[in-house]
């Protein structure tokens, strides 16, 4: 089975940032200094951070999947973003006095906890890293805009198609997609919460995608059978990911 976990430290982050800027060996060495921070491990269904907490560290996801979410007092939850290996769980969150959202582990996760001063010291040495991180933050904002568009305007089929194409490109960028196949270690409930659908509607949409020959999904591995067709269904434009800058 394809691995969703990686022990590559800051390598996924370096691969990701290299899609925005041409980085060199010195940039790689600078990023590796972040690996001196403590690394934490959490099981699935654990909270990495809770709404209302005072954030004090920068978290860099090394392995596993996490999410940003909001919930209502009656228990309903909306996933508003996925964190993949190489992602910061809110890069500048430590400037806030209180978190306005929660971050949860969808699978077992490993992440570095980096002191803001250490993080600032590393990036201050490398101007290209600063520019690449700014690009990374702009991409995160672009992803949020696309998710909002999906919830507001796309059909269930279009939403799920768009999410799968987006995840494919994001995982490919950090070396976690093989061909058109990647591990999808999350549940249908997670997909429903991210797409604003009921679990029943989500399941029906998955079945429709299978019947249309768009995807194959088994053993938590998703294969995109026809990327061109899937992108057409999703009306997918990859410009918001900015992976064509180098």
From TrEMBL:
Record flagged with keyword Transit peptide: no
Sorted UniProt keywords: DNA-binding, Transcription, Transcription regulation
Domain spans labelled HTH crp-type: 154-228
Keyword Lyase: no
Database matches in SUPFAM superfamilies: cAMP-binding domain-like, Winged helix' DNA-binding domain
PROSITE patterns in UniProt: HTH_CRP_2 (PS51063)
Protein name, as recorded: CRP-like cAMP-binding protein
The species this protein was found in: Erythrobacter ramosus
């Amino acid at each position: 089975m394809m691995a969703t976990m990686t022990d590559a430290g800051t390598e996924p982050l370096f691969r990701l940032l290299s899609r925005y800027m041409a980085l060199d060996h010195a940039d790689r060495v600078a990023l590796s200094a972040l690996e001196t921070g403590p690394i934490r491990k959490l099981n699935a269904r654990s909270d990495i951070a809770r709404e209302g907490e005072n954030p004090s560290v920068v978290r860099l996801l090394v392995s596993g999947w996490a999410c940003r979410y909001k919930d209502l007092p009656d228990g309903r939850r909306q996933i508003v973003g996925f964190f993949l290996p190489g992602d910061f769980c809110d890069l500048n969150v430590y400037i806030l006095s209180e978190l306005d959202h929660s971050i949860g582990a969808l699978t077992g996760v490993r992440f570095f906890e980096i002191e803001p001063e250490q993080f600032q010291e590393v990036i201050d040495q490398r101007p290209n890293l600063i520019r690449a991180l700014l690009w990374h933050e702009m991409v995160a904002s672009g992803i949020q805009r696309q998710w909002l568009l999906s919830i507001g305007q796309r059909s269930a089929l279009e939403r799920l198609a768009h999410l799968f194409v987006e995840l494919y490109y994001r995982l490919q960028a950090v070396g976690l997609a093989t061909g058109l196949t990647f591990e999808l270690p999350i549940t249908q409930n997670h997909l429903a919460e991210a797409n604003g659908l009921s679990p029943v509607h989500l399941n029906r949409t998955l079945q429709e995608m299978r019947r249309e020959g768009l995807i194959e999904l088994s053993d938590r591995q998703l294969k995109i059978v026809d990327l061109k067709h899937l992108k057409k269904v999703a009306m997918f434009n990859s410009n918001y990911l900015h992976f064509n800058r180098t």
